[in-house]
Amino acid sequence: MFIITNALLRFFSMFLVSTKKNDMKKKLPFLAAALALLSLNACNKSKSRTTVPCIPASLQSSVLAFYPFDKGSLNDFSGNGHHLTNTSYNGPIADRNGNPNCAFNFADSLENFNQYVGLTDATFLDGLTQFSISLWYKPFDSISRLPLETLVCRTQAPNSYAPMQYSWAVALFDCRKAVFEYTTSVWDQNILPIGTTASCMDEVKVRTGSWHHLAATYDYAAKQIKIYRDGVLQNTETIPVNNATVQDLGYLLLGRRYQGKMDDVVLLSKTLSQAEVIALRDMEPCCLTE
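Below the sequence we write its predicted structure tokens.
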């Protein structure tokens, strides 16, 4: 694009210098066509530099990485180049609207520590004072023994199960409820009413086999972390003053020991508002290629 634009500019200079007054009328159509091409060229260049597909316009500038898993791709569609690597036998599957191969299937991750997708160099997440994660997930199988199922995390030891080795994590645990850990923990609320005779496995069953939108936010200045399910705020926790920061360590991992589907994972350098969470929840599945 840059080469074409410079060539057009050189053409205009030569055109204006060499064209006689009497010949100007004859050459005006060519000049108009060249100007139109230059305008289109600049427009396309601007769009390719700034637009993240599918993401609401108000959040475009805050996207650090975006993984729509389109046709099994593990590429970062934000344009920032934070592409994932697959260490597993997992692969693409239908998304929440039934579009084939537009979500990612973590079917073989439950019993294997090294079955995940990830990124070794996650330094783009260092030093953030505001941070949010948005994703869609659909757990499989109401099994009786549930480990800590990691949806997204940053960890020093990718093949270790020890929770204390996380810098932060969004995971499923304790009756398969979602939890966000970032110096402290904030939990999703029960779906089944508290005080009923429902067991933990009853809670697991209502959470299994359905798509849910999940968002987690961190705000250093407010000393708060929050978790949202399906656009609704579930809980807010205050970060202890002496625990307000965490070490920026380790890999970025998705789907470690998680049994289910995942889609449209967005990492952002801002604390999402309720309205912004809802905008991401209402976003159509990002299935880009035919």
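The longest strand covers residues 130-139.
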